[in-house]
From TrEMBL, chain A:
PANTHER family registered for this protein in UniProt: ANTIPORTER SUBUNIT MNHC2-RELATED
Superkingdom of source: Archaea
Subcellular location, record wording: Cell membrane
Transmembrane portions of the chain: 6-28, 35-56, 76-107
Protein name, UniProt field: Energy-converting hydrogenase B, subunit E
InterPro entries reported for this sequence: CPA3_antiporter_subunitC, NUOK/Mnh_C1-like
Gene3D superfamilies in the cross-refs: 1.10.287.3510
Broad class of the protein's primary localization: membrane
TrEMBL record, chain B:
Protein name: Uncharacterized protein
Membrane-spanning ranges: 12-30, 37-57, 69-88
Keywords: Membrane, Transmembrane, Transmembrane helix
TrEMBL record, chain C:
UniProt lineage: Archaea, Thermoproteota, Methanosuratincolia, Candidatus Methanomethylicales, Candidatus Methanomethylicaceae
Domain spans labelled Na+/H+ antiporter MnhB subunit-related protein: 119-268
GO cellular component, one term: plasma membrane
Cross-referenced PANTHER family: NA(+)/H(+) ANTIPORTER SUBUNIT B, NA(+)_H(+) ANTIPORTER SUBUNIT B
Cell location: Cell membrane
Protein name (Swiss-Prot/TrEMBL): Energy-converting hydrogenase B subunit I
Length: 124, 95, 287
């Protein structure tokens, strides 16, 4: 039996988000819904990266007034994950913008948001 | 080297926020009435009281004048900077 | 594929496939648990009392400083590609020009018919949001915050103003202003790699770079007050259990300001392209 720590739970939530996003991208027809599912998937990956730095009984990696200098390096959460997530968010913003722009163009061209019709080249 | 406690992390952000406020405030084209300006200033003071001073800054008010009361001075100075910047550029009244 | 097609045996196969992928993803996540080497970020945790209370800022802008510089260009790629795709139509899909273009209704709102709450409180809220963004960027080294967050907050203020007031938006960021903001921000970020290079021969070595090192050092060349308040920008007194330490985060807060301008420019450009279009809108949305 796996011990249910906070890290385990957040990994579980991250895997759920990833799988919901993947299911939405694969099985849903609407392009906007596919875009939303894509952002959910990227959120799941972000959550997994953030929970990598979890330290049992730890504190935020910000020196607060009255913090102990000797305990801080051991107690503070690892900043590796959030640092990578910052990159990931920036890339997510630009990817979402490009995808939304492409959806607008597809809508102007085909008059529909259904991926099945767009793939077959049908007009609404 | 400590000059005076308020200088530690308080004055530089306040000045920088004021300058940035002027830079962005020149992009506001609305000319504000006196009542709205007063409203914004009062709301900024209230908001600054709610945000409190950032950690590790020895606030100008907190600890000097009154214990446990601290204002986020960058917030107030940024608001004043925005108002000053909008006055510098303001040309159109928003009805 | 539509969700309605997933009936019967196909639906069962799809569900089983999802469960298998879920098990794979979850087990690979679980193997990471407790297996992370504490490595470089623990070094930065140890350095925290000499640099900046917010460890993440010093890590992102020092250890990953050059990387973050390139990465902020990525958001520009997003903005530029959105503008190209939406605005000038360089994609040139066949048949786009033959068909009737969908012309959006001009975004405008008569302020006479506006609810009283929106009429009197929208502009103060926009101004206070911008101030909040500036507070976040100036407190970047001490609390959770930074350039990207400030940029997003200011861009949301811009979006709020545009949505409420339409083309007569009081927060009137023009195309050229946005491009200038972004260029200024990225240029500032790049140029702030210079002090670190001059002092340590490493580009974007940002922690502890002394802005006054080029001044010949003799007593009284730089007044101590000036050096404390501006010379080592954003110097702090950390009250810790072991005593009071004086930490200076070097030029990290200034880099955050550069990044904030960069992000304001890029995200507002994306909003601008999506709301007004690019080639259709006249120069200056407020006219």
């Amino acid at each position: 039996m796996i011990e249910l720590t906070l890290q385990t739970l957040s990994f579980l939530a991250a895997a759920l988000l990833v799988i919901i996003g993947m299911a939405g991208m694969l099985y849903l027809d609407n392009l906007i819904k596919k875009l939303i599912a894509f952002t959910l998937l990227s959120d799941g990956v972000n959550l997994a990266l953030v929970s990598l730095g979890y330290v049992q009984g730890g504190i935020v990696p910000i020196l607060e007034p009255g913090a102990s200098l000797s305990d801080f390096p051991n107690e503070a959460a690892l900043i590796f994950g959030p640092g990578i997530v910052l990159t990931n968010i920036v890339i997510g913003v630009s990817t979402t913008a490009i995808l939304a722009a492409l959806i607008v163009i597809l809508y102007k061209r085909y008059g529909t948001l259904k991926a099945s019709k767009v793939l077959k080249g049908e007009h609404e | 080297m400590m000059v005076f406690p308020a200088a530690m992390g308080e004055i530089t952000p306040t000045v920088v926020a004021f300058l940035l406020g002027i830079a962005i405030g020149t992009q506001f084209v609305a000319r504000l009435s006196r009542r709205t300006t007063l409203l914004i200033l009062v709301m900024s003071v209230v908001a600054a009281f709610l945000f409190e001073a950032p950690i590790h800054t020895w606030s100008l008010l907190g600890g000097v004048l009154a214990e446990h009361v601290s204002f986020a001075l960058p917030f107030i100075s940024a608001t004043i900077g925005l108002l000053v910047g909008s006055v510098l550029r303001g040309s159109r009244r928003l009805e | 594929m539509d969700i309605k097609e997933l009936k019967g045996i196909r639906g069962i196969i799809a569900a089983i496939a999802l469960v298998i992928i879920f098990a794979g993803v979850l087990s690979s996540f679980m193997q990471l648990e407790g297996n992370v080497t504490r490595g470089i970020s623990e070094e930065y945790n140890k350095l925290a009392y000499r640099v900046a209370p917010n460890n993440l800022a010093s890590w992102v802008y020092d250890y990953r400083g050059f990387d973050t510089l390139i990465e902020t260009g990525v958001i520009y790629v997003g903005a530029v590609v959105s503008v190209l795709v939406l605005g000038r139509g360089l994609v040139g899909l066949k048949g786009v020009d033959d068909e009737e273009r969908v012309v959006a209704e001009p975004m405008d709102l008569k302020t006479e018919t506006m609810p009283v709450l929106l009429k009197y409180f929208a502009l103060p809220v926009v101004i206070l949001l911008v101030s909040y963004g500036l507070l976040v960027v100036t407190g970047a080294s001490t609390s959770g915050g930074g350039g990207f967050q400030c940029g997003v907050i200011v861009a949301s203020a811009y979006l709020l103003s545009v949505v409420i007031y339409g083309k007569r938006s009081p927060f009137n960021l023009k195309k050229k202003t946005l491009i200038a903001f972004g260029a200024f921000g990225w240029g500032l970020y790049t140029m702030l790699g210079l002090p670190g290079y001059l002092t340590t021969n490493y580009w974007q070595y940002n922690v502890g770079a002394d802005l006054w090192s080029w001044v010949p050092s003799f007593p009284g060349s730089v007044p101590e007050v000036l050096r404390t308040v501006f010379g080592e920008p954003f110097k702090l007194a950390l009250e810790l259990k072991e005593g009071v330490f004086y930490a200076t985060s070097g030029i990290i807060p200034l880099i955050n300001i550069g990044e904030a301008f960069n992000v304001i420019g890029a995200i507002c450009l994306i909003f601008f392209a999506f709301i007004y279009g690019w080639s259709d809108s006249e120069e200056g949305s407020g006219k």
